[in-house]
Amino acid sequence: VACSEFAKGHTKKAVLGSLLIVGILGMATTASAQVRGTGAYIAAEKNDNKAPGEYSFIGGGDKNEANNTYSTVGGGYYNEANGDSSTIGGGYYNEANGDSSTIGGGYYNEAKGESSTIGGGDNNSATGMHSTIGGGDNNSATGRYSTIAGGWLNQATGHSSTVAGGRNNQATNENSTVGGGSFNQATGRNSTVAGGYKNKATGVDSTIAGGRNNQANGIGSFAAGIDNQANANNTVALGNKNIIKGKDSVAIGSNNTVETGKENVFILGSNTKDAQSNSVLLGNNTSGKVATTIKNAKVNGLTLENFAGV
């Protein structure tokens, strides 16, 4: 009888112990369920991943969070997919905060704008709606539909602006474009800087093909080479140190100047002086003259009349 009572006592203790273990497991299961939303799936729960968003998904990695509906983190660590239908493929310390935003990988990237995309790289920020950064580092695409393909320290702030690459380039106005190079600025609407160094296209529809320290400030102006300035509307400055201040004028060569108020000038050469309106200057050290109208002339005794010339 004593043995029987002894066995009964141990049986009760075993049952109570089992119930205690079951209770602890139940509490752990409940705690785990608190970081998983309806229909959510976590492939690596033991690594402190959290998917509180409905139908959210975490494929792997450690300490990742899929916090919104249909948000996804493929892997990596310390990534946060906070926007509705946002996605992070991998990497670490990335944040996809905009709805339908995407980060492929890299680290310390933020896709904040709706439907914004960052392919990779580091410390990139895509805050404009439908903005895109392919890669690189420390790039910022803030304009709606703006694009930065790569490089570093580039800014695309204008609507539909583009920086293809390079460094420290800025495309700040609507439809402005910088192809590459460094320290270039396309600030005019529909302006373009193809590349080079420290070029500025500030005029509407202005273009700089390349080179360094060029300025295209006039509407529809064009510059290429070194230290050229196409400051007036519809002007072209090609070569070296040409300064065009008179509208509808062209200078091809070096060290040529068309002053303000002198219009429709064409220069092909170098070091020309005193360019006058409606004149053509060719060669080196050529001086301009005021255009005059000639109505008649005598050639070999033959008088020619009723024409205009210079």
From TrEMBL:
<feature type="compositionally biased region" description="Polar residues">
    <location>
        <begin position="159"/>
        <end position="193"/>
    </location>
</feature>
<dbReference type="InterPro" id="IPR011049">
    <property type="entry name" value="Serralysin-like_metalloprot_C"/>
</dbReference>
<keyword id="KW-0732">Signal</keyword>
<feature type="signal peptide">
    <location>
        <begin position="1"/>
        <end position="33"/>
    </location>
</feature>
<protein>
    <submittedName>
        <fullName>Ubiquitous surface protein A2H</fullName>
    </submittedName>
</protein>
<feature type="region of interest" description="Disordered">
    <location>
        <begin position="159"/>
        <end position="198"/>
    </location>
</feature>
<feature type="region of interest" description="Disordered">
    <location>
        <begin position="114"/>
        <end position="138"/>
    </location>
</feature>
<dbReference type="Pfam" id="PF18792">
    <property type="entry name" value="UspA1_rep"/>
</dbReference>
<dbReference type="InterPro" id="IPR040630">
    <property type="entry name" value="UspA1_rep"/>
</dbReference>
